[in-house]
Design brief:
This protein is α+β, with helices and mostly antiparallel strands and about 140 residues long. It has seven helices and four strands. It has a single domain, classed as Nucleoside diphosphate kinase-like domain (Alpha-Beta Plaits), CATH 3.30.70.141. About 40% of the residues lie in helices and about 15% in strands. Helix 3 packs across helix 4.
């Protein structure tokens, strides 16, 4: 079994798509180990997306991710990371395969509804960030 972090972003939470998105996750065989609703501060969002430091879109991403509630989920399944990345689809919903979460629920490349860990290392770091004993997003 592999673990990963999945997060429903503020645009999808605001559009009341949480239940629909979680249904897709469960239908794909993921176990929800932990889940909660948070509102990240700008500092927390910047730390969560530290891998993008220096990139031109970081400030906009930080502002977006701290603009409203988000729902991080600690998920478990065989091949969870790759399976979840396939389930959510391309970052730009116009390029996402039909039936993927982003094709169904994302507004744009910037407001793309969800986040998913991209590697075992990032999954471990992101799960700890969101759910660890000293998790910064508590």
């Amino acid at each position: 079994m592999e673990e990963t972090l999945f997060m429903i972003k503020p645009d999808a939470v605001g559009a009341r798509k949480v239940g629909l998105i979680l249904a897709e996750i469960e239908k794909a065989g993921f176990e929800i180990v932990a889940m909660r609703q948070i509102r990240m501060t700008a500092d927390q969002a910047r730390r969560f997306y530290a891998m993008h430091e220096g990139k031109p879109f970081l400030d906009e991403l930080v502002a977006f991710m701290s603009s409203g509630p988000a729902v991080p989920c600690h998920l478990r399944r065989q091949n969870a990371i790759l399976g979840l990345r396939e389930l959510i689809g391309a970052t730009d919903p116009k390029e996402a395969k039909p039936g993927t979460i982003r094709a169904l629920y994302a507004e744009s490349k910037g407001k793309n509804a969800v986040h998913a860990s991209d590697s075992p290392e990032s999954a471990k770091t992101e799960i700890e960030f969101m759910f660890g004993a000293v998790g910064a997003a508590r």
